[in-house]
Fold this protein.
Amino acid sequence: MKKNYRIAPSILSADFARLGAEVKSVIEAGADWIHFDVMDNHYVPNLTFGPMICKALKPHAQTGAGVDVPIDVHLMVSPVDTLAASFADAGADLISFHPDASGHVHRSIQAIKSQGVKAGLVFNPAEPLDVLKWTLDEIDLILIMSVNPGFGGQSFIDSALRKIEQARKLIDASGRDIRLEVDGGIKTDNIRRVADAGADTFVAGSAIFGKPNYKAVIDQMRLALG
């Protein structure tokens, strides 16, 4: 059976001076989700977007038919809970965070879900998946980092493929509908390998926004996925 793949362009690589237009353009080009990399210059060495930007972009995240394209927020922040609540209020549809950035992982998951938002956990390249033993029944998404967080445009770390395979086995054994997302160095020439390892959702930043024709890149990715 053909998988229901999702391509989630990361606006970290978009033109910040025209973000609304960039979001509209990439949705017209075929984006399934809009990925929002939130960095705090504390948990990671960079500073990006806050909830006000998310709220401002929410009206732009629509198809021509008026259907909302999900805003997928990846929090690279510590602490987690206050900003998670603010992004939920700003219109985020999915909010993921790093377990090591939260004092109480299960409580943070519950807080996100209590606001009607889907919750996910993010795993850095050298971070084990152990916390999933205790949280898999609560989450909607697992995000595997295939680069170290903090900057766009990095190269894919091949060892992430083994972690994707491990996460896929856990998801399949759970029987739950959990998205398996991968972020970092995703390009047209490696997206198939990442899918074969078990991923179904792909974050791509510079691979899309760094090219003149967004649709051509997203079409090439879908062709590679089959």
